[in-house]
């Protein structure tokens, strides 16, 4: 009986940690945002137009949060 409760607690803690780690990873990391450096590890090449589009989205988002 105590082992069952132990496994339930372990599963809940692991689910919570996985959820928090998911929020700790910066969004758009594959585009190059979120970190101070460009990641050059075998990923797909980043298109400059895509970078510009995401920069525009960030500017729009920042503008809407400042006006609230």
Question: What would your notes on this structure say?
Answer:
The chain is an all-alpha fold. Helix content is 62%, strand content 0%. The protein has helices at 2-24, 48-66. The chain starts with a helix and ends with a helix. The mean pLDDT is 76.
Features of this protein?
single chain; 68 residues; mainly alpha; 2 helices; 62% helix; 0% strand
Instruction: Count up the helices.
Output: 2
The rough form would be described as elongated
Percent in strands:
under 5%
C-alpha-based Rg, rounded: 19 Å
Average pLDDT, all residues: 76
Beta strands, count? 0
What is the total number of structural domains?
1
Helix content: 55-70%
Structural class: mainly alpha
Order of helices and strands: HH
- Please report the distance between the alpha carbons of the first and last residues: 52 Å
- Weakly predicted, low-confidence segments: none
Give the biggest beta sheet.
Answer: none
